[in-house]
Amino acid sequence: MLANGVPLKVVSEILGPSSIAITGDVYGHVSPDVSRDAVTTLGTVLSDVGSANGGQPGPHRKRGRSRSPGNGL
Fold first, then answer.
1. Cβ–Cβ contacts within 10 Å for residue 1, how many?
2. DSSP letters along 2-58, please?
3. Contact between 56 and 62 (Cβ < 8 Å)
4. Residue 1 above 70 pLDDT?
5. What angle do the packed helices 20-27 and 8-15 form, to 10 degrees?
6. Which pLDDT tens digit goes with each residue over 12-61?
7. Is the CA virtual torsion 12, 17, 22, 25 positive or negative?
8. 10-28 burial, b for 16+ CB within 10 Å, e for fewer?
């Protein structure tokens, strides 16, 4: 069912384990074809996002400590 696109939640409800996590652990292994399709889809989505931004990367925030006066540096 999972390999044919049935959502994990639905599979879990049909099979009846006590939690969706158990269903995922037991039946959720990923076949090479599914992995390949997922990577292809991710590439398409990222390409579409880049195109929507005119090919420019999105805004990035610097992380780390501030170097503004008054912080003890």
1. 12
2. GGGT--HHHHHHHH--S-HHHHHHHH----HHHHHHHHHHHHHHHHHHHHHTTTPPP
3. no
4. yes
5. 100
6. 999 887 888 988 888 877 677 778 888 999 999 999 887 777 665 555 54
7. negative
8. ebbeeeeeeebeebbeeee
How many CA atoms within 13 Å lie on the side-chain side of 61?
Answer: 4
Higher pLDDT, 25 or 67: 25
Length of the chain: 73
What single-letter DSSP state applies at residue 62? -
Task: Say how far apart CA 73 and CA 70 lie, in whole Å.
Answer: 7
- Rounded to whole angstroms, the Cα distance separating 41 from 39 reads 5
Q: Supply the pTM of this predicted model.
A: 0.42
